[in-house]
Design brief:
CATH topology of chain A: YutG-like
Domain YutG/PgpA (chains A, B, C, D): 28-158
Region (Disordered) (chains A, B, C, D): 160-183
Strand content of chain A: under 5%
CATH architecture of chain A: Orthogonal Bundle
InterPro entries (chains A, B, C, D): PgpA-like_sf, Put_PGPase, YutG/PgpA
Bound molecules: calcium ion
Keywords (chains A, B, C, D): Membrane, Transmembrane, Transmembrane helix
Oligomer: homotetramer
Protein name (chains A, B, C, D): Phosphatidylglycerophosphatase A
Distance between the termini of chain A: 67 Å
Chain lengths: 183, 183, 183, 183
């Protein structure tokens, strides 16, 4: 049996593919910030960057990115057979495999991620809008992948913020308890 | 083995439950119209009503409605054990079983349905907004169920409009072909 | 705007692609029969064929079939970039985009479809086994697509059988009522 | 605004509920072992226990457990309204809300988790079989929840084993490199 492809190779390829197609982690972080700032007053852009970066560590998302961008590029090069070539090229409204692939990796971050993904799919924000408007390249799959990563990072952050909040509360309790023990 | 519950009984119960909790098919049709009118210039409110009504014929949705409304009502009557009672009563942000149950029946109508559901979950339109603002009753599950039915009806309609369009085109072709055969 | 690809073209392409890759509707019907016969004593192979055929009328499944088989064929021809080429070629265990694409169209037939899909994915039956054992061709996506169609057709059938049963019961009641009215 | 329910309270309640309904983490670990041993020759029962325990730390699963067991218990006490009471009591074949709730938390662990869940739903193993055969209590939701936790723990383990494997390989490479540097 052949040695399986190393995780590092897959992760690096996915990150490189995103970059080559014009998507920076900063672009994704901006969407995350826009989605989550209303719920977390102390949210920083660094939190959002960190969360988007963490999401990109998951195999499920790396695989989705590799497949989606490959299909976009093959479509650009007119290397798909018909009628698939036309379906993807025209970003046909009833074609949903792009959303399906993106959804697969969104599920990993719970129902907030799924609803945020749906929202971003309709209200194309930031880089998603830019990809959607780019008429020279095919981004039928990429826009959904970016929405997927941003949605996942948003949900991940919502959970983290809560954990942080609760821990702070626990720390405070602990500190109070410690202080009560003093003397 | 006991005779299974008849489908009619389940369907009637689900429709009655929605009505009793203040949700009319017309309310759902309005959301569907708002979501789909931009894509289908000839869309009528009757199309939207018919689509919402058709979605309610599916078992998956009827079951989801029965479970969700039951949990809302039990919560109102303080009949759930803690901490579930508090989680549902406060419509806790990280509690996602309401979305999960609603999503289960959305999947049946494809990826457009899923993204529309996500959108409606964020941008609470029409009756969903009203349910969300109602502070006297518990609608933790119902708002998602309504979003689910509206999203499913929207997706169903998108597919129907396309079918209708293509058939018209075929009819036109057929007519032209028929006319060419005349004489 | 370009005219969208006609539904008939998409449907014919999907059916042709399955056939060319060695999958007949009869093969799928056999799996459906094996899955459902235990629940429905009167089930015929014709019921199963009809159900598999009906599932193939859905856009969601046609699109999934086109994308999946395209990726299998491109992999066979070594036309994908690395590391995706190796991931698909080796049918890497942690690569799940094939299941994700297949799942997308399974959801349309409810939770029985999802669990049946999961079962078929583990216990490779009939043609799925044959595809999996075929070492000359790449069927990384196709085996999941077949499991998806078979699972959807099984769930569809379970719902149909129940409808049929209930209608028979209603007919019987109706007949009894009619007879009671006689004379 | 009321203080949200603390995570610890939710987690403890979910763990206690499982235990009270007769499900130990050891029972779940056994299923995990049976599912994964074939893929990982060095797998220990401790690995499986640890993985099942880790899955129970996720909010999504805790919430699903709380809702599902609550519905089972309310059904036992005949406190649900009809026809929902009968649907759950009879574990009606076409009722899928139990699978939907369980699936919601399975998605978090990728497509291997989903297919393993489907398999366990059909081939009721260990404690799942026991719950299914228990005619004195209602376990319509619990059997799916256990399948969900076991499936998630299995998928989590599959990913962990791979990570472990790759790290070992890296360690070996590192050691070799270090040795080559010696002298
Ligand atoms: Ca797209
Ligand atoms: Ca809600
Ligand atoms: Ca496969
Ligand atoms: Ca069950």
């Amino acid at each position: 049996m052949k040695k399986p492809v190393s995780c590092d190779v897959v992760e690096n390829a996915a990150r490189k593919a995103l970059k080559e197609r014009g998507v920076l982690i900063d672009d994704i972080a901006e969407i995350v910030y826009e989605m989550q700032a209303q719920y977390s007053p102390n949210l920083t852009m660094d939190d959002c960057y960190e969360s988007a970066d963490a999401v990109l560590c998951k195999r499920e998302i790396q695989h989705a990115v590799l497949v989606g961008i490959e299909l976009d590029k093959l479509t650009e090069k007119k290397q798909l057979s018909e009628p698939l070539q036309s379906l993807i090229e025209s970003d046909e409204g009833l074609f949903g495999v792009d959303e399906t692939i993106a959804l697969g990796s969104v599920f990993g971050f719970g129902s907030i991620a799924v609803t945020t993904f749906g929202y971003l799919d309709k209200e194309k924000k930031g880089i998603i809008k830019k990809l959607d408007n780019n008429k020279e390249q095919v981004h039928t799959f990429l826009d959904d992948l970016v929405a997927s990563i941003a949605a996942s990072a948003s949900a991940r952050l919502a959970h983290r913020m809560r954990d942080r909040e609760e821990n702070k509360r626990k720390d405070q309790i602990k500190k109070r308890e410690d202080e009560e023990l003093i003397g």
